[in-house]
Design goal:
Number of domains: 2
Strand content: 15-25%
Largest sheet: 5 strands, mixed
Order of helices and strands: EEHEEHEHEEHEHEHHHEHEHHHHH
Distance between the termini: 29 Å
Strand order of the largest sheet: 2-4-5-6-7
Structural class: alpha/beta
Length: 412
């Protein structure tokens, strides 16, 4: 674990060519680096704890996948400038994350020998999280310049020592079997679309129940599993108007009573596993209705793109996205292409959540009603965009992580 380090690499005004990842513990049997911030007594129980806990330092594997030079070292042996990662499964504003850090790690961060790197793949408001971290820095006497936050929300770069990185794009890329995706082909297909929803949210069942009420579920591979049913039924917590939700409630209740709607025999765990691709469903349908994680990204004004959007990209489909404003525009910023050449994507720039939701619902129904023949021709016409997207995804996105590394390590 120990090595010889060149002091020139850690000059505060130069870029560091090797990233040293400091961890407090390495599992004595598996040799796996354990999560910083979790007591040793819980290490063998991590796979049974909920997803809100601190997580394994996945950054190590990401760096290796991207061939970015790195080395794992114990915290006590870490050279100046090393990263001390804390991986957040869910950000709890009541949690004092600094108090979970080992004594040695904390003291070395206070002495400005280590950089504390929080990674958070979710889309929660990064400004609010940054404010909380800065408050904790003040409480514990830590220089906030030594504390970084990597966030899945596009607005992250607006805040000090906070960086946007679409981790879920990379997480999906490295997890899915990239040889198992649906290929682009011109054979006729039996279904118009694929619309899979594994976790219940109020706005999702409003959308899917509308399709169901018009019999359009029969035209696609349509799934609503009802997992975590009712967990987000608060009207005031939903981005859609309360009057609209109340109007839809009787239909939603009928929809839930008629369900669940399933297209496979997988259990809840398998539905939440990236490597379960269901290639046959993508191969036999033309387009995808993406029901993203958020349609209003924690009132942050940002975008949050998850594997739900990258699945049709990987599987050579065009798609519409029930998501936040400028979701498609941000995909274009990332190097992908969207389908405005042939489909009306004006909904993407609609700021009002209710109006945007209505617009993408109307577009989805219009596409389904157009029939298989027209959808087949649309699929042919969109071949350049569809194949470009698949190529971009398959080629990898190491340059995005390299940009994060450069920002942290090259900051004067």
């Amino acid at each position: 674990m120990e090595g010889t380090y060149s002091h020139a690499r850690f000059n505060q005004n130069t870029c560091i060519t090797m990233i040293f990842i400091a961890v407090d513990h390495i599992h004595p049997v598996t040799g796996r680096p354990m999560p910083n911030g979790i007591p040793v007594a819980l290490h063998d129980q991590l796979d049974f704890l909920d997803g809100k806990r601190l997580d394994f330092p996945r950054l190590i594997y990401y760096l290796r996948d991207c061939k970015i030079p790195n080395q794992v070292v114990l915290t006590k042996d870490a050279p100046p400038g090393a990263w001390y990662p804390v991986v957040l499964g869910w950000f709890d504003f009541d949690q004092d994350y600094f108090s979970t850090i080992s004594v040695e790690g904390f003291e070395r961060i206070k002495r400005k020998e280590l950089k504390l790197i929080f990674t958070y793949h979710e889309g929660d408001h990064p400004g609010h999280i940054r404010n909380r971290l800065d408050w904790l820095c003040d409480q514990h006497g830590v220089d906030p310049a030594m504390v970084w936050l990597i966030s899945g929300n596009t607005t992250a770069d607006q805040y000090p020592n906070t960086i946007y990185w679409p981790e879920l794009e990379f997480m999906y890329w490295r997890t899915v079997d990239r040889n198992a995706g649906a290929r682009y082909h011109l054979n006729l297909r039996s279904r118009a679309y694929i619309g899979l929803c594994r976790i219940d949210k109020l706005w999702r069942k409003v959308f899917m129940s509308d399709l169901w009420s018009h019999g359009l579920n029969e035209h696609g591979y349509f799934s609503y599993t009802q997992h975590l049913l009712g967990s987000e039924d608060d009207y005031h917590g939903c981005a859609l108007s309360n009057s609209y939700l109340a109007q839809c409630q009787p239909r939603v209740d009928q929809f839930i009573e008629a369900g669940p709607f399933l297209v496979d025999n997988l259990d809840t765990h398998a539905h939440n596993t990236y490597n379960q691709n269901m290639t046959d469903l993508y191969t036999d349908s033309y387009f995808n209705i993406v029901l993203e994680t958020m349609i209003d990204v924690d009132n942050s004004g940002g975008r949050f793109i998850t594997e739900k959007t990258f699945k049709p990209i990987f599987n050579n489909q065009f798609f519409v996205a029930v998501s936040s404003v400028d979701h498609l525009r941000h995909l274009r910023d990332l190097g992908y292409r969207t389908f405005g050449r042939c489909i009306d994507e004006a909904y993407d720039s609609v700021n009002n959540n209710q109006d945007r939701f209505d617009a993408v619902l109307d577009l989805s129904k219009s596409l389904i009603h157009s029939g298989l023949d027209k959808l087949h021709q649309l699929y042919v016409d969109l071949a350049p965009e569809i194949q470009h997207n698949s190529h971009v995804f398959q080629s990898g996105m190491s340059h995005r992580l390299q940009a994060v590394v450069d920002r942290i390590n090259c900051k004067p």
